Amino acid sequence: MMLRITRSAFEVLVRHAEKAFPEECCGCLSSPEAEGPVTTAHPCTNIQNRLHEEDPKMHPRTARDAYHLDERELFRIQQELDDTGRHLRGIFHSHPNEESYFSAEDKRRALCDDEPLWPDAHYLIASIRGGRLATAKSFTWSPAQKDFIEEPMEVLADDA
Amino acid sequence: MAVKVNIPTMLRNYSNGQPSVLVEGTTVGEVLQNLDQSCAGIKERLLDKDGRVRRFINIYVDSEDIRLLRDLETPVASAKEIRIMPAIAGGRPGFASPCAVLRSP
Ligand SMILES: [Zn+2]
User: pLDDT class for B104, splitting at 50, 70, 90?
Assistant: First the structure.
């Protein structure tokens, strides 16, 4: 697989990630076509701090070390996309002062019984250092390797 | 009695690309049991071996999470649609839990 994303959508997620720094941010990616380029980034709320406050034993991490996308927001985005015939294509989150790679915890939370929760998703991870984008990489599930692997990513000019 | 189950794009490998499928059933549990007929293999992704909804899977009847309703016993007769939404979460490496910090010298 390969992630193609428009420049404007990419900039929306980068701004969201830079604003959230030094905490992790998260959001969704969508497109008008089931297989075409991602044209919209939907910044979402990382509710990890709230989960941590409610139950620090169950959720020892805060938003500095983890993300949990607000399920209500995800539901509303999915509903709106379904109603307008668009497609949820991927998930983005940030790594503050950390490389952009699929961490062990990212993997643990993206799997259930060693199978991916979202088999066809693009997972874009943005590394933010000192409040600015350092690198961004995209990952996807490889059924052959039974792991999340890096996939090529292309940021497209908006008029393309 | 059939109800519409919306399949997110990222799960449509189970539904042969179909955005939604019509499934027979009177409760959410029955619908999920029957969902495998049109989406082979999806049931074991949604339910554990004891038939309970897996922890990272959220299922909505119209706009309500079934955990806030009657879970798998939730009736679907008057429902417009059912949605399946796996949770989205993760975390960065190098995290020391507070317990681990306390234990270290
Ligand atoms: Zn991560």
Answer: very low
| Cβ separation A98–B56 shorter than 8 A | no
| Residue with token string 């495998």 | B36
Here the tokens at position B40 are 């082979």
Q: Tens digit of pLDDT for each residue in A93-129?
A: 999 999 999 999 999 999 988 889 998 999 999 999 9
> What domains can you pick out in chain B, each with its CATH number?
2-103 (3.10.20.30)
Q: Do B93 and A104 touch (CB under 8 A)?
A: yes
Q: Which domains does chain A have, with CATH numbers?
A: 3-156 (3.40.140.10)
B91-103 tens-digit pLDDT = 987 665 544 444 4
Residue spans of beta strands (DSSP E) within chain B: 2-6, 20-24, 57-61, 64-65, 81-86, 89-91
Q: Which residues of A81-96 are buried (b: 16+ CB within 10 A; e: fewer)?
A: bbeeebbbbbbbbbbb
Q: What part of A 20-79 touches B (C-beta under 8 Å)?
A: 24, 26, 28, 34, 48, 56, 60-61, 65-69, 71, 74-75, 78-79
Dig out the tokens for A138 from the structure.
């995209």
Residues in chain A: 160
* Residue B10 C-alpha, separation from nearest chain A C-alpha, in angstroms: 5
